[in-house]
Amino acid sequence: DAGVIQSPRHEVTEMGQEVTLRCKPISGHNSLFWYRQTMMRGLELLIYFNNNVPIDDSGMPEDRFSAKMPNASFSTLKIQPSEPRDSAVYFCASRGSRTDTQYFGPGTRLTVL
Amino acid sequence: KQEVTQIPAALSVPEGENLVLNCSFTDSAIYNLQWFRQDPGKGLTSLLLIQSSQREQTSGRLNASLDKSSGRSTLYIAASQPGDSATYLCAENTDKLIFGTGTRLQVFP
Predict the structure, then answer these.
(1) Would you state the pLDDT for residue A21?
(2) pLDDT of B29-42, one tens digit each?
(3) DSSP conformation letters of A52-75
(4) To probe the interface with A, which of B23, B33, B42, B44 has the most A CB atoms within 10 Å?
(5) φ, ψ at A53 (rounded to 5°)
(6) Of A24, A72, B2, B48, which residue is least crowded by CB atoms under 10 Å?
(7) CA distance B26 to chain A (A)
(8) C-alpha distance from B101 to closest chain A C-alpha (Å)
(9) The pLDDT value given to residue B30
(10) A96 and chain B: CB distance < 8 Å anywhere?
(11) In angstroms, rounded to a whole number, what is the distance separating the alpha carbons of residues A80 and B65?
(12) How far is CA A64 from CA A67, A78, A113, in A?
């Protein structure tokens, strides 16, 4: 099993640009989570989907952030426009229906200049 | 507000020592408590999951306990090895995971 796949692994962009992060969950998992990790705030849940439907987006910091899951094998997290304070590592995780264990991807390190 | 606290924030020990990492949480209505390991530049790896009805879980040299009444969990690492060096995070699960800030562990030869 390839595990959770995230792309890109590193992204450097300038303030004001649009950023799109991508995630492919483990095949057969029906829940998908987006997290953000910073030194100041630790690991925070941004949004999670169950069967492709957004269930809780209370962690999404602003309207500049949006997430979609068009099908069971793909999700995107978009930031438009990006700001320097969005610099962080963004993780995607997935979970199967018969377990509470979440499996994390390797993360995308985002730097906004 | 749900809070998860981990003590100590950092720990450096010689190889072979037995270790205890502490996790405190405020919400007693948890479904389960989970421990993860994070290596530098990598994602999180699940180590142990303790359901709210359980008192402890074991996996190899790792043992995690849960005391809901006091809002505490401990991760015990027996006979530590340099390969155990990583950051260890606990997370309480109510309807979503709330993570602690982690304990950064270094085991030196």
Answers:
(1) 98
(2) 888 999 999 998 88
(3) TEEEE-TT--STTEEEEEEETTEE
(4) B44
(5) -105, 130
(6) B2
(7) 17
(8) 6
(9) 87
(10) no
(11) 43
(12) 10, 8, 17
